[in-house]
Amino acid sequence: MLSCLLSVWLFASSTLAQTAMFTRGQKFQIILTGVPDTSKNPLPPTDAPVFDVDLFNTDAGTIDALKAQGKTVICYFSAGSLENWRTDAKDFPASDQGKVLDGWPDEKWIRTGSAKIRDIMSKRIKMAADKGCDAIDPDNTDGYQNDNGLNLQQADLIDYMRFLQRTAAGYNMQIGLKNSIDILGTLSSIMDFAVNEECAKNAECSRYNAFLNSNKPVFHIEYPSKMNPVPNNDKNNYCSGAGTSGMSTVLKNISLDGLVIYCDGSQVDTPTRGNGPSRPPKSTSKPGTRSSTTRRFPSSSSSHRTSSSRSAVTSSTMITIPSTTTEEPPSSPPSSSPSEESPTPTPITTPSSTSTSTTSSSTQRSSTPRPSSSRTSSQRPVSTPANPGGGCKQKHWDQCGGQDWKGCTVCESPYQCKGVSPPYYYQCL
Ligand SMILES: *[C@@H]1O[C@H](CO)[C@@H](O)[C@H](O)[C@H]1NC(C)=O
């Protein structure tokens, strides 16, 4: 009996050992704007075994469904910045908040060594485990390469990544290193994969050689100047540039929506839902960040958080995204996901002020929601009923309420004012 059990156990464990969750060259898809619509089964790209999705926006049901379709699910979250629209934003102590991220006004660097911050991240990692994620993709951990206001050093990042890895491993989840090639060598033994943005554009993909040789995947994202079609130089450089061989390369729009182009020329638009209201303006994409070494203090010209400020091409041509424009359905914090604690859509009430109620929608969009700084002051504006009507009507996607909101709180039909990130932000949806 015992030997029988033992052999079953041995069999099971050897099977497990054989099936590495991640291997070099795996095809992947990454979607941080919107959530994969798993009502489509099979969901394209059917031959991509790895999906990287937003931890907060993607509910457990979607993750289950992805896994049922054979996908390995990586859950993305920012581990090194405070995104002021997240449901746990109020838990970040003011004393642990540093400078605003260059080009991302709703985000601040955070003190990654702080016990309170680590506690928050532990909860996020638990959330990932509870939702069924197989692995985590913690972003923005490279504050040390930026003007962070907290004196973060490279050693802090190494220690922090070790902490994140231990915590994830405690739930049997794997972890990847986002960008930060400088510390790849130090951490490669405990990182299960890497996620890179723009190493080809920045001519540094070769630095992943050793990592790839250990049979771990590098999920490599490049943002061509144009998606449809991708210009030939971009494609050649991103798909065949030095060091890209063996990488899991995707060509994506910076918004990281459902559209993906692979180096074999195939193109897939993965159906998504909740496309519009998934993130606030200026943060539409979560393209990680400045990649490497050369970029300690990004110039102020960068309008998104990729390595754009290093590249004139990037910053001049690629930034057609929601980040700077007011065109897109901009705003809006995530958390439309059922499993999130995101409060139910409740009509909002805001400080009164009828005078501004007719502000144009574009103005309102660009006036960003939930000023993060307000959190640091002791008194938070209390929402009071006001202006219920006044003749104003906000359009689809417009902000219609939230802390400090002084504009119109009524939505035109058929939209309703919903709390997408209460108490900070409400939007006509
Ligand atoms: C990315 O998508 C946005 C929104 O759909 C679009 O306006 C923009 O032109 C796209 N960018 C590229 C490089 O294709």
From TrEMBL:
Residues 392-429 form the CBM1 domain. Coiled coil: none annotated. GO terms for molecular function: alpha-galactosidase activity; cellulose binding. One of its GO terms (biological process) is carbohydrate metabolic process. Residues 267-288 have a biased composition (Polar residues). It catalyses: Hydrolysis of terminal, non-reducing alpha-D-galactose residues in alpha-D-galactosides, including galactose oligosaccharides, galactomannans and galactolipids. Residues 1-17 form the signal peptide. GO terms for cellular component: extracellular region. This is alpha-galactosidase. It comes from Clohesyomyces aquaticus. The lineage of its organism: Eukaryota, Fungi, Dikarya, Ascomycota, Pezizomycotina.
